[in-house]
Design brief:
The protein has 481 residues and is an alpha/beta fold. Helix content is 41%, strand content 19%. A hairpin with a 2-residue loop joins strand 14 and strand 15. Helix 13 crosses helix 16.
């Protein structure tokens, strides 16, 4: 298959842009780059990699989970109506593909271990039908379901009229660490393949017992399997970590082997410079989620400290795009503006920006370091933008086309997306599924549960009020383990 483009960003930020190029694909790889006589007003670059996402087709606000502090917002997720897991994932994968994402890290957050295998198969099928590469993160947790304290303590603090419901609905029994590791292997047996990897997914370190964290570290080392988790996303998590691990939370995770070269920690907003240095030493990385951190009032990741330490980092949409549209191109532009101020000694450069969205993100999702450049033998994952639409008012040849992308590009400018040589978006539309029909069905399924969702609203609000009092009183800082 041949693709003629007016501009080719072979390795954005590292190589000069090329003009009038024919990209020849050979199966799932780039075959050759040769001169073209007609570039069709298109601009091509490697497809984006979303290194942290929860792949929620139904947006949170659709069932009443408004943006607010993370620890309170999280409680509202229990009101999410039941949606077919295939459709919910297909909707999110489709939106991401339409915004240029070829690889998606799906941090699956369900606590329903009993249906995990079936859900994993449905989600992998959705990724296959849409055509994206998938990193499926198996959710692992065995403590602190309700918040940063014992479930018994927090349950007792809930309104008496809600305790039975909360216990029966949210507090499922968890498998042993060994049973969890067996489950990870079974998920991998069922869904792993050329475009799907399976990762160990401690929901967050505070949600895992020491025994489970140690089992995760051992399995990662033994099986060369990547670990993805949330890490110091909020100030409350920072205070919890300092109280529970006075000798060092990040140091502890390094000592037991959780933080290693196979590790991706999402957010990292409250990491300190000495902790960033520890991650950098181990070639671990952080996935930055700027929009999510704004919307959940978590803060701004200290990316300058990542740069100073030489720590690799990537980026994620986190199912929290600014306009609830899962637009990775807009997220890319916003992170560029946020982290490249002139008054820092460690600004985000264009090279670093695209390394995050390309090489580092692809490694995080797929466990492969052979990505980030359109070159013979590289994966044929290509984002193709309609440069005529992007440049509709420009005086020709007065500005670098890549600067136009970094100023304007959004999902509406995506012409095509190729993953492993397959065109999965054509003329801005997903080719493998009927995305508008999927969206209509997801919304219909959600609204069919309106009575249940409305009945849960007061329970959610009482639970959030309980959690707010618990954290305000310092319940999460009860001392070392």
């Amino acid at each position: 298959m041949d693709l003629d483009v007016k501009y080719l960003c072979e390795a954005p930020g590292r190589k000069e842009l090329r003009s009038d190029v024919k990209i020849r694909m050979a199966g799932d790889l780039i075959g050759a780059l040769v001169p073209s006589e007609h570039g069709n007003d298109l601009l091509a670059m490697p497809a984006l990699a979303d290194a942290h996402d929860h792949v929620r087709g139904l947006h949170h606000i659709g069932f009443g989970a408004k943006d607010q502090n993370f620890e309170l917002w999280r409680a509202a997720l229990y009101a999410q109506p039941p949606i077919d897991p295939y459709l919910n994932a297909a909707l999110a994968f489709g939106r991401l593909a339409q915004s240029g994402v070829g690889s998606v890290m799906h941090v699956y957050s369900s606590i329903r271990v009993d249906r995990l295998l079936d859900d994993a198969e449905a989600i992998a099928r959705a990724a296959r039908d849409v055509g994206v590469r998938l990193g499926f993160v198996v959710p692992l947790r065995d403590t602190q379901t309700l918040g940063y304290g014992s479930d018994e303590e927090l349950l007792a603090l809930h309104d008496s009229q809600d305790r039975k419901f909360v216990k029966e609905t949210w507090l499922y029994p968890f498998p042993s660490p060994q049973a969890y590791m067996d489950l990870v292997r079974e998920v991998a047996h069922r869904i792993e393949g050329p475009l799907v990897t399976v990762q160990l997914g401690p929901n967050s370190p505070q949600a895992c017992s020491e025994a489970l964290l140690e089992a995760i570290a051992e399995a990662s080392s033994r099986d060369n399997r990547r670990i993805t988790t949330h890490l110091l996303e909020t100030s409350i998590q920072r205070k919890w970590a300092d109280a529970k691990y006075p000798r060092g939370f990040i140091e502890h995770l390094c000592d037991i082997g959780v933080i290693c070269e196979r590790f991706t920690g999402a957010h990292g907003v409250w990491l300190r410079p000495n902790e960033v240095a520890l991650l950098a030493e181990r070639r671990a990385q952080i996935a930055v989620n700027a929009s999510s951190n704004f919307r959940l009032r978590s803060g701004v990741a200290p990316v300058a400290s990542y740069i100073r330490a030489g720590m690799p980092f990537s980026f994620g949409v986190d199912s929290f795009g600014f306009d609830d549209d899962d637009d990775a191109l807009r997220e890319m532009r916003m992170t560029n503006w946020m982290f490249s101020p002139h008054d820092t000694d460690a600004p985000l450069t264009t090279k670093m920006l695209f390394e995050g969205w390309h090489r580092n993100g692809f490694l995080a999702v797929n466990g492969r370091s052979d990505y980030g450049e359109v070159a013979p033998g590289a994966p044929a994952d290509l984002l193709v933008l309609d440069f005529a639409k992007l440049s509709y008012d420009l005086i020709e040849d007065v500005i670098d086309p890549l600067e136009v992308v970094l100023t304007r590009a959004s999902a509406r400018h995506v012409k095509s997306l190729y993953v492993a040589g397959r065109e999965i978006v054509h003329d801005g539309r997903v080719t493998g599924i009927d995305l508008p029909a999927v969206e209509r069905e997801v919304i219909a399924q959600a609204r069919a549960n309106a009575t249940r969702v409305k009945s849960l609203k007061p329970v959610m609000e009482r639970s959030q009020a309980t959690l707010a009092r618990f954290y305000a009183a310092g319940g999460h800082m009860a001392g070392p383990r």
